[in-house]
Amino acid sequence: MSLLGLLLGLEVPEGDRELVDRLKRRDPRALAELYDRFGRLAYSVIIAIVRDSGIAEDLVQETFLRVWNRVQAFDSQRGAMGPWLLTVARNRAIDHVRSAAARMSRNVYELEEREHPSLFVDSERDLISSDQGRIVRAALTTLNDNQKKVIELAYYEGLSQTEMAEKLGQPLGTIKTWVRSALKRLREELDRVPA
Amino acid sequence: MTCDELREEYDAFALGISEGAVLAALREHLAANCPTCEPAVREALDFAARLSLGVRQTDPSPGLRRRILAMVQERPSSPRVGWLAGLGAALALLTLFTVRMSMQQARSSEALTLLSSGDVKQLSVQQPDFRADIFASRSRGVLLLASNFKPAPAGKTYEMWIIPKGAQPAPAGLFAPRADGSVIHIAEPIDQPLAAVAVTVEPERGSDHPTTKPFLVATP
Ligand SMILES: [Zn+2]
Questions:
Q1: Cβ(A147)–Cβ(A181) under 8 Å?
Q2: CA A73/CA B62 separation, integer angstroms
Q3: What is the distance in angstroms between the CA of the first residue and the CA of the last residue of chain B?
Q4: Closest partner CB to A180 (pick from B8, B67, B176)
Q5: What's the gap in Å between the CA of A26 and the closest CA on chain B?
Q6: Taking the domains of chain A in order of start, what are their residue ranges?
Q7: Is B218:B196 a contact under the CB 8 Å cutoff?
Q8: What are the sequence ranges of the domains in chain B?
Q9: CATH class as words, domain A3-126
């Protein structure tokens, strides 16, 4: 399926509604449709983080299994399937790359709390347009080196700000400033472009 | 902390990098369905998901779709298979595998459920040059645990077959070893007496019937 198709899939909430209802009824064809819409994107997000195709495919499988198993809690009237599925996908990948120590020191609840289906509703912005990948990449290029570094460590490695401070040998306050300014900058850039 | 103090923290929380007092405070606000923080966190999660669109788009192998769909194929409503006896000691084995393979939680808990079901039985594997154990449960399906598995040749995949007594092999899912050579593959239960479980190399999309000689065969 083309990127454009995937993105259009994300754009049509009416389509989500019907698809979610079918997923809730355990229609295996609905899972096929969900995969055709988001499988490539989920895989792309995961492999960018784990950098191994075999592991990435296992994690895509877990992503879809998780969505299948939890879709009952998803609000089919207001739910935004694309953002939810991408969040689940990234969380599986982050969970994989985090060191065993980092995993132990964190509450298991920590990933779960950010992917509960009830949080993915009322996507106010038109989340996706076919240009979105380019827009996001362009926004990332506006960050300075420090900002880029912390966003990469956050996005691709799932490091907490304390872990970043250790890794980069910087005071926690400095890291927090970089993170905050980077996220602010990204928001400005993304908001500047009408979606 | 007040909502106002948390205002700048929503995006970091959505990315999963909050910690300490901020994280605790945000959790409290969310648990209390805070009318300010909850919608803001939703919006931040949306923003975080949007950042994911910046990754370079890559295609997974075509076999992945089939693997994913195989997970939800209808299982027989009342499996009645007469070939299984109890087995308890497999749990310790799985613990060992879990540590060694650092496998993902979802699959390991599924495997644990299978191994701890009352009707699980270990099959005898005819001997490959890598470690492989196959367990079958009439209620939970068939589990393959293996290590030192080579990746399938380019354009090929591994496919499991469940062979009922007096019947043709039934496809039981495609799989690929993980980077460390480990395999955890679980197939749905079948509703007939089992003659054997086999693994073949098949074209990437998988086959409906085995097209190569099985290199791994297990029998009850
Ligand atoms: Zn609040």
A1: yes
A2: 30
A3: 62
A4: B8
A5: 8
A6: 3-126, 142-191
A7: yes
A8: 3-116, 121-219
A9: mainly alpha
Of the residues B8, B41, B52, the best mutation for testing chain A's interface (the one with the most A CB atoms within 10 Å of its CB) is B52
- pLDDT tens for A8-59 read 333 334 567 888 889 888 888 899 999 988 899 999 999 999 988 988 998 9
| Residues B109/B94, Cβ–Cβ less than 8 Å | no
* pLDDT single digits (tens) B181-198: 778 788 877 778 888 899
CB contact (8 A) between residue B46 and residue A183:
no
CB-based contact, B11 to chain A, within 8 Å: yes
CA angle A108, A111, A116 (to 5 degrees): 115
Q: Under an 8 A CB cutoff, do A58 and B178 touch? A: yes
**CB A127 to CB B74 under 8 A?**
no
Q: How far is A87 from chain B (nearest CA, A)?
A: 6
Q: What is the pTM of this model?
A: 0.61
Cα A32 from Cα B182, distance rounded (Å): 27
Does domain A142-191 match CATH 1.10.238.10?
no
As for the ipTM of the complex, it is 0.82
CATH number of B121-219: 2.60.40
Three-state SS letters, chain A: CCHHHHHHHHHCHHHHHHHHHHHHCCCHHHHHHHHHHHHHHHHHHHHHHHCCHHHHHHHHHHHHHHHHHHHHHCCCCCECHHHHHHHHHHHHHHHHHCCHHHHHHCCCHHHHHCCCHHHCECCCCCCCCCCHHHHHHHHHHCCCHHHHHHHHHHHHHCCCHHHHHHHHCCCHHHHHHHHHHHHHHHHHHHHHCCC
Give the per-residue SS3 of B52-72.
HHHCCCCCCCCHHHHHHHHCC
Cβ distance A41 to B53 less than 8 Å, yes or no, reads yes
